[in-house]
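Every protein is a chain of amino acids, and every chain bends into a shape of its own. Below is the pair of lines this work produces for a single protein:
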Amino acid sequence: MTRGRKIPALVFLRETEKKMKSICLFCGSNKGGKPEYEEAARVFGRTLAEQGITLVYGAGKVGLMGLAADAALEAGGKVIGVIPEFLKAKEVAHLGLTELHITETMHQRKAMMAQLSDGFIALPGGFGTFDELFEILTWAQLSVHNKPVGVLDAGGFYQPLRALVEHAVSEGFVPKGNQDLFRIERDLPALLSWMRQYQPSHVAKWLDLART
C-alpha cells in the first residue's frame, strides 16, 4: 500500500501503446438490477487477466468494482487500486489488491488512475461512473491525453448515452468528429480490438455555428 504522490491539476498523460498493458475501469459501487451487469464485470476482470492486461480502478471492494477486481485476481491478474483517504476510512477499499494507492483528493485519484492506464473502459454505474467517464472524455477532447475510451454496453445500459451524445451533436454543442473519441460496444473482444487500433483524431472543440 502506498500513499499517492502529489499530482498537478492538469496532467499530460502517456502516449497510447498499441499493446494495451493496462486499462482503467470505471463502474458502479453497486451491482445494479440486472444479472448481465454482474456477469459483464466478472468477464471483464477475467478477460484482462487472461490477456495479461493490468486492471486499474478505484479500489472498491463492493458492487461491480469488487466483482471485476476479484475476477481478475482469481484469474491470476494484476489489479491496481487508487482510492482517496476518506473513502478508505469508510472501509470500502479492497485490501487484497496487487497494489493499493491512497490519495488525498478525488481529483488526485482520477489523475493517478489515468497516468497508470493505457486506455479506459466504463461499465454500468451511477453518478461517480458518469463523472469519471465524462471527465476523461473531456480530457481527450482538449488533447490532454490521446488514449482510447471505451464503453461496454452491458444489458443495453448505455443506449441512452448514445442518444444523448447524438442529440448534443445535432444541437451544436459537440463537434461531430468528437463522437470518435470513444466507442460504445456490447462485445468486450470487439471493444478491446478497437482500442488497440485506436488512432486519435483532433477536432476543434469550439464550433463556429455561423459557418456550419
Q: What stands out?
A: The chain has one domain: 20-198. The two ends are 52 Å apart (CA to CA).
